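call fold(seq) -> tokens
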Amino acid sequence: MLILVNSTYGLDISFYDQIAAEVTGFRKAAPGFRIHSADAVDGGVVVTVIWDNGQDHRAFFESAVKPNIPAGCAVRYSGGRTGQYHRRVRRPPCARKRQHGERDE
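ret:
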């Protein structure tokens, strides 16, 4: 499994949204894709992705994303982590926040 964070500086969030709309269907169908999240930051966009492996991510990025990034934008990777994870915690879809002092019965 690969967890990767990249920062793309010089890319406006509205332009990112256009790129994302164009590649979403391809991403969902891409082998190895798990999760994608993006947030606007000063001067660009930070994207966090989870893929089964680096090869699947690289193939998707090179074919679907990279050609859509405007010249002058700098994509910087803060590194990726691959391997087996000891523990992953996900909130169940039906989970709700407990009120202060509330206990399980």
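The radius of gyration is 17 Å.
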